[in-house]
Amino acid sequence: ENLANPNEHIVEKTRKIQEDYVQVLKRDDGTSKNIKLIDKDHVHHNILQVINQYSVSKDEGAKHDNRYDVTILVNGLPMVHIELKRRGVAIREAFNQIERYQRDSFWAGNGLFEYVQIFVISNGTETKYYSNTTRFNAEKEHERTGGSRKKTSNSFEFTSYWSDASNRIIPDLVDFTRTFFARHTLLNILTKYCIFTAEDMLMVMRPYQITATERILNRIAIAENYKYYGSVKGGGYIWHTTGSGKTLTSFKTARLASSLPYIDKVLFVVDRKDLDYQTMKEYDRFEKGAANSNTSTKVLTRQLSDPNAKIIITTIQKLSTFIKKNPNHPVFDQKVVMIFDECHRSQFGDMHTAVVKNFKKYMLFGFTGTPIFADNASKAGKSGFFTTEQTFGDQLHTYTIVDAIRDRNVLPFRVDYIKTIDSEKPEEEDELIYSIDREKVMMAPERITMVTKYILEHFDQKTYRNNRAYSFNKLLNIKEVASGKRGAVEEIKKKQTLSGFNSILAVSSVEAAKAYYQEFKKQMEADPSKKLIIATIYSYGANEAEPDGILEDENSEDTTRLDQTSRDFLESAINDYNHTFHTSYSTDSDQFQNYYKDVSLRMKNKEIDLLIVVGMFLTGFDATTLNTLWVDKNLKMHGLIQAFSRTNRILNSVKTFGNIVCFRPLKKQVDQAISLFGDKDAGGIVLLHTFNDYYNGFENKGKHQTGYLEMVNDLLTKFPLEEEHIDSEQRQREFIKLFGALLRMQNLLKSFDDFKGKEILSEIDLQDYQSRYLDLRNEWKEKQTEKTDVSDDIVFEIELIKQVEISIDYILILVEKYRKSHKTDKDVLIQIEKAIGASPELRSKKELIKSFIEHLNSIEDDTKSVEDKWYEYVEEKCAEDLDQIIKDEKLKPEPTWRIMEEAFEYGELRTTGTIVNDILPPASRFNRSGREEKKRRTVDQLYHFFDTYSDMGALQKKDDE
User: Fold this and answer.
1) What is the torsional sign of CA 720, 724, 730, 733?
2) Based on the domain organization, do 387 and 443 belong to the same domain?
């Protein structure tokens, strides 16, 4: 019961291994004994065994017979599973294979395979690893419509390579096995370098994170043994590029350092209240109550006096005040590890001086994505602060932007340079505008108008918003709809925008922020079809115009020192925000902090489309949903890399790069920054190729990279649409690979302005090909039940198809058009049929949509809109269909309704454990095989019902009827 409880699944079993690993087990004689499922204190006390080809059959409850490749047992429980494919097969298929196991059989029998903590996938030449909850938790995007939460269909992007301490990837299975599967290494990863978060997510650290943590712990041990504390020898800094997971590394370092018997305190020091808030949220996510945060210097003082407060998060500002007010505090004589986050900022110079003067036994460590070298250091202030190395000591580990992009842990950038001033060559613009009043030219109203117009016209394209809501021009005049029923249009737009990303506009000064905000409002009022949800945030800065672009002294939280005009304007912008989101913020000190936090949260949830900033949000802000930075300010060196890196967090297979659109001539600065923080040849890795390269193909290291043109020609030649069915298995494989590659290439080209009008494939033809692609996917899924390795080298790019998803709203507009033609325009019915066929989501609703159109034909009432009739019909039909399933299978009505209500609410139907048994009628003790068949049939019907009606808010609670 402790280990094989049928009501416990991956999350509960992971918690047992990571947190509750000491279990009380009852013996047959009634006595009990404490058993460690895994021994974390003495790792070599654990017993490792390897098993091959373990089989699970339908007789044990699995949906299909499955045979697992290689499994490592720790103390008898399967904790590491390896899935192997033959050389030449896409490694992603091993990932898909494990998805099938998780769906079909890991829970079968006693469910012991749900104890697997780490998966390893390999095709011999390429090997990766990931945690057991990667698939379910990698995507944190939540649908906010209908109360459902959707998870990504593909989280392969979050798998990790293994590498050595110098960041050299170890992809070959033999070399991977020698290192990763070395007994000591594997047990350390399982016991020390996994984190089970407060959000029930298991995170397994990446190799560079493990190396950095070990280097710091080693430096602490040396400082203790050789009495190096209190000097630069007792510290060092970690250069891990922005977006590579520094917070997780620092958290694990802080946790492990705080458990050392000779360390009294670990201080995690961040800059600015917003980072304090963000880091605290992150630390809280890793482990509730693991660290103490504080809101005042008084609280900090109390925590520093409390021997039980081992890890404390605080800000530079609070620590400085504490040092000034408590010159003889006992903590100054204690052994204190200090970890500084984002230690590239100039404020650390003064803080460093204060720490060195007062703390006697400090061990100082810094984390930064962009260190200060001699080349990018500002002039030394009164503190004499020059470089990161002078402040913190040795560079303990490096993981540059080039390493991270190569390992696919962050995305490369695509940079557009948009010419905004008329001169012969873009490069000359720099000299031209420096010779006159530069900012005056940049602030010219005509230029602000032009840049705003460009952003509004290209917003959907750059952020991958689903344009179908505004493809309605083909069907209706959108301006007529907007003037007559604007609310409905905005509601459709709101639903459609959930599919794409959002963006930040970085401007040079508060004056520029004001001008842009007003111009956006003006242009959006003139054309409601361009409507975006915009917000702005800025505060007082000594160098508002920031002529050098270094982003040094940005982000004071002070609004009181803003001039009255700037503060009044910010107040009015916050009032607009309050009106949009029904909040009540202002520019008053505490309220402004809460406004910052709310903006941060809404940016992460994609509720804001465009945020206009001067300095805030350009450093330290992480949102995976952000993909575009519009730049109308000077940036260089670490400021440029920091700002660009807001866009390159991995989210899913649609987001393949960070989009940068520069309205200033920044090419030299971009090249210089990439050269400094990567290496002199880094440009080819960090920046994408040109449009012509991707469109026509290019040579890369002696190998030809196929272009869009070649792919489309191949598709039209080898698989013409006139050919109704691709019969041979080999040709089907070829089509799937070719069309998948074309989808990826098209996704890349979509953000290029040059692509418009050069698509070659019409939208109708693309839909036909998508429909064929999805037909094959269904065909191969059916084959999968008979032969487990039938799709060995097949990977379907479903996420990319979903990106151009046809929505219910789009179909309803077509139905409206059909109705207005008095049901005579049969071409619309063909259009509806094709649109449904090209959509993975709508295929399951095909019969429902067809029956609705027939229903429309039978009623005369034209007073209600098609949309109203649709939702009435769906609600009625949904209840009817569920009642019919209950009646046909003689299910228990109340628990069946309850299960489906929960499934619709959470966007997932769970049928494991005792869930299905609880709704089935009482079992006959003489016919067990018949019950299993009934169970399978019931599950299939409930899944079909769920696929048909989910995401439409169709199922109401029985009590509400």
Assistant:
1) positive
2) no
Local structure of residue 924 (DSSP, 8 states): P
Which residues is 169 bridged to in the sheet?
163
In a domain, 608, yes or no: yes
Question: What angle separates helix 826-837 from helix 763-784, to the nearest 10 degrees?
Answer: 50
What is the spatial distance between Cα 888 and Cα 944, in angstroms, rounded to a whole number?
A: 15
Closest Cα partner for 655 from 19, 155, 28?
155
Grade residue 927 by pLDDT with cuts at 50, 70 and 90. low
Distance in angstroms (rounded) separating the CA atoms of residues 620 and 475: 45
SS3 for 80?
strand
Where does the pLDDT of residue 337 fall: very low under 50, low under 70, confident under 90, or very high at 90 and above?
very high
Does residue 300 fall inside a structural domain?
A: yes
User: In this structure, what token pair is assigned to residue 675?
Assistant: 């050269």
**Residue at 655 is within a domain:** no
What does the radius of gyration of the chain's CA atoms come to, in whole angstroms?
30
pLDDT in tens, 343-389: 766 566 777 888 889 999 999 999 999 998 888 776 544 455 578 89
Residues 69 and 217 in one domain: no
**How would residue 435 be classed by pLDDT, with cut points 50, 70 and 90?**
very low
* 202 DSSP β-pair partners: 196
Residues 851 and 725 grouped into a single domain? no
Give me 816's structure tokens.
């409206």
Sign of the alpha-carbon torsion through 792, 406, 606, 453: negative
Q: Same domain for 941 and 901?
A: yes
Nearest to 635 by CA among 607, 667, 606: 667
Q: What sign has the CA pseudo-torsion 225, 226, 229, 232? A: negative
Domain CATH for 609: 3.40.50.300
The H-assigned helical ranges of 537-625 are 564-581, 589-604
Which residues are registered as beta bridge partners of 204?
A: 194
* Alpha-carbon separation of residue 859 from 725, 819, 862, 866 (angstroms): 38, 11, 8, 12
**Residues 506, 391 share a domain:** no
Task: Please identify, among 631, 648, 665, the residue that sits at the C-terminal boundary of a domain.
Answer: 648
Query: Would you say residue 867 lies in a domain?
Result: yes
Residues 193 and 301 in one domain: no
- Distance CA(934)–CA(928), nearest Å, equals 10
3-class DSSP state for residue 369?
Answer: coil
Strands 66-74, 703-705: pairing is: unpaired
Distance from C-alpha of 137 to C-alpha of 134, rounded to nearest angstrom: 5
Q: Say yes or no: 431 and 380 in one domain.
A: no
Nearest to 338 by CA among 240, 229, 243: 229
State the maximum Cα–Cα separation within the chain, in Å, rounded to a whole number.
95
Distance CA 207, CA 215 (A): 12
Nearest CA among 246, 215, 249, 244 for reference residue 363: 215
Report which DSSP code applies to 33.
E
What is the DSSP secondary structure assignment for residue 755, as one 8-state letter? G
* Rounded distance between C-alpha atoms, residue 786 and residue 805, angstroms: 31
Q: Which CATH number covers residue 43?
A: 3.90.1570.50
Task: Give the residue from 577, 502, 574, 501 showing the smallest Cα distance to 538.
Answer: 574
The one-letter code for the residue type at 857 is N
Q: What is the model's pLDDT at position 184?
A: 96
pTM, two decimal places: 0.84
- Domain total for the chain? 5
Residues 332, 300: one domain?
yes
Q: Which structural domain, as residue segments, surrounds residue 454?
A: 413-465+500-648
What is the C-alpha to C-alpha distance for residues 394 and 219, in angstroms, rounded to an integer? 10
3-state secondary structure of 643: helix
Confidence of residue 866 (pLDDT cuts 50, 70, 90): confident
Interior CA angle at 313 toward 310 and 315, to 5°? 140
What is the CATH classification number for the domain harbouring 791?
Answer: 1.20.58.2040
> Measured at the alpha carbon of residue 897, what is the angle toward residues 891 and 903, in degrees to the nearest 5?
120
